[in-house]
Design brief:
Structural class: alpha+beta
Order of helices and strands: HEEEEEEEEE
Number of strands: 9
Low-confidence stretches: 158-164
Strand order of the largest sheet: 5-4-3-2-1-9
Largest sheet: 6 strands, mixed
Number of helices: 1
Shape: rod-shaped
Number of domains: 1
Helix content: 25-40%
Radius of gyration: 28 Å
Length: 164
């Protein structure tokens, strides 16, 4: 009788140990999954905010340098074109989305933009720009999951235009 009781206690302790181990493993897996989802969401939000801030800062730099700002079309959508004069040569910085990335390229004014020519800045699905007559540039970016982030910047000078 004593021996049966002793065996039951040992089996209970072993079962309790396995139950504890299984619960600890499940908890670890759930925490790792929650962390990875949170980190992914944080990176996506960072990329979207950074892309709008990047565009805003580029516009402000161009506005301060007396450059021309326009919105033009590429094969995949809108492009922000920032004109500048460097050593009596007119250059344009094109910022646009192509192949899932925000890209930037510096070209001589009037040069054609070729696919894949721009430097990859960050992953983005689309870029929508609207330059209002009152000088308000509205920026809307979409990431790969379809999440949209908007921003606005006021252009203080008259060297702005919407190009076809």
């Amino acid at each position: 009788m004593r021996r049966e009781r002793h065996t039951a206690e040992i089996l209970f302790v072993i079962a309790l140990f396995f139950l504890y181990t299984i619960c600890a493993l499940l908890l670890s897996v759930m925490v790792a999954d929650a962390y990875s989802r949170g980190a992914e969401r944080s990176e996506r939000n960072y990329n979207m905010r950074t892309s709008v801030l990047y565009l805003t800062e580029k516009v402000r730099q161009t506005t301060g340098a007396e450059g021309e700002i326009s919105v033009r079309q590429t094969g995949e959508g809108d492009a922000l074109v920032l004109g500048m004069l460097v050593e009596s040569e007119q250059y344009e910085t094109w910022i646009y989305v192509e192949d899932g990335y925000l890209r930037e390229v510096l070209l001589l004014q009037g040069a054609d933009i070729s696919p894949g020519i721009g430097q990859k800045i960050m992953p983005l699905s689309s870029l929508v720009l609207e330059l209002g007559p009152e000088g308000l540039l509205q920026i809307s970016v979409t990431d790969q999951t379809g999440e949209i982030y908007d921003g606005k910047v006021f252009l203080e000078r008259a060297g702005r235009r919407n190009a076809p």
